[in-house]
Amino acid sequence: MIDPLGGIPDEPAPEPEPQRIQRPLRPTTWALLIVLGVAFLAEALVGRDPAVENSVALFRLGALYAPAVRDGDIWRIGSYALLHIGWVHLLVNAYALWILAPQLEITFGSNQTLGLFCATAIAGGGASALWSAYSGSARLAAGASGGIFGLFGATVALYFRVRKGLPEPVRRGIIRAIALNLLINLAIALKAPVDNAAHLRGEPRPWHGLARALLLASALAFAAMEGAAVSRAVKPHPRTLRGPGVEAQVPSLLVPMQPGIAYLPGIVEAHLRREDRPLRIAPGEDAVHIGERTWLRRRSSEEGTESAVYEAADGNRTLVIEFACGDDVCRGAAGEEMVARIARTARPLP
User: What separation in angstroms does the CA of 131 have from each of 58, 136, 222, 302?
Assistant: First the structure.
């Protein structure tokens, strides 16, 4: 057809306004990163160590230590996951969390992602404690790697579920990212003082309704464990040490290992026993009155380790406390207060 007016062109259609892409919220990812940062700051402040590798600070804030778990610190099988041993350990785990968690939040939801992290972290801590009991080894362990390996396992499962619909270049990129995260975490497991059992246990399985409830319960349990860790860090509770014929309350740093022996490796150690011999304190000997008894005291220092032996009469028998300290946390007046607590609460057993 011919336009009788000479062909007036139609008005061009208005161009659509560009729409801003709304990035999905990632509350679990950000919350975990913030909590890890706050816990690391607490380690630095408590340990007064720029490298943030102080063993006493780690122990006080809830690091995993199997003998302490056996002594009643059950909360350590979860609280360890928020602590890290040094800057490299923290940064590598934070990077892995930043890479793995967001996609899982988008796919499965924030609650399930948080529950998965908490469940596998607790499972990793439990596996580590069981392995320590089986192997007879004991060392401080910390790090979010147990929970991160759970997220890693979920990412692998997600990839195999959707891989057929992905272009080949995308599949290769995902495989490279998975391999990189696996190598990084294996390197941490081999080099850093963390337990491989926590890594290996953190592999998830597909979940449905019941499993979602278990994941939520795991998140609540994890929060309760961390609450217990904070409470014990603020107000430490004494432990009970039972030796041959005697028992006493000892500071929380001293973990009972066997009858009459409690220690934290490389930091502080105490022995408690009752001997079948009388004690006589001669005039001029170093004697101190603690509680209801007078204690004969012998002290020495060698190669940075302060040692002391305290003895007190118990009828025709003698109560003996041996104390050794290799760290500033128990030297000088702090060590004397630790021994005084043991001496005040020492009582013979029938």
Answer: 20, 8, 21, 35
Residue 12 exposed, middle or buried by CB count within 10 Å (0-12, 13-18, 19+): exposed
CA pair distance 299, 323, nearest whole angstrom: 9
Using CA atoms, how far residue 1 sits from 7, 9, 10, in Å, is: 10, 14, 15
Q: What is the pLDDT of residues 248-286, one digit of tens each?
A: 999 999 999 999 999 999 999 999 999 999 999 999 999
49-69 in b/e burial notation, b at 16+ Cβ within 10 A?
A: eeebbbbbbbbbbbbbbbbbb
Average pLDDT for residues 45-63, to the nearest whole number?
Answer: 95
Cα–Cα distance measured from residue 253 to residue 269, given in angstroms and rounded to the nearest whole number: 9
Closest CA to 120 of 33, 222, 38, 28: 222
Note whether 233 and 130 are within 8 A (CB): no
Contact 151, 100 (CB under 8 A): yes
Q: What is the pTM assigned to this prediction?
A: 0.82
**Residue with tokens 């860090």, as numbered in its chain:** 233
What does the CA dihedral 173, 177, 179, 183 come to, rounded to 10 degrees? Answer: 150
| pLDDT tens figures, 154-203 | 888 777 776 776 667 656 666 766 676 666 655 655 555 445 444 444 44
* Phi, psi (degrees; rounded to nearest 5) at 131: -65, -40
Sheet holding 246-250: strands in order across? 239-243, 246-250, 347-348
CA dist 241 to 8, 256, 260, Å? 100, 6, 6
Q: Specify whether the CB–CB gap between 44 and 27 falls below 8 A.
A: no
- 285 backbone φψ class: left, alpha, beta (φ>0; ψ -120 to 50): beta
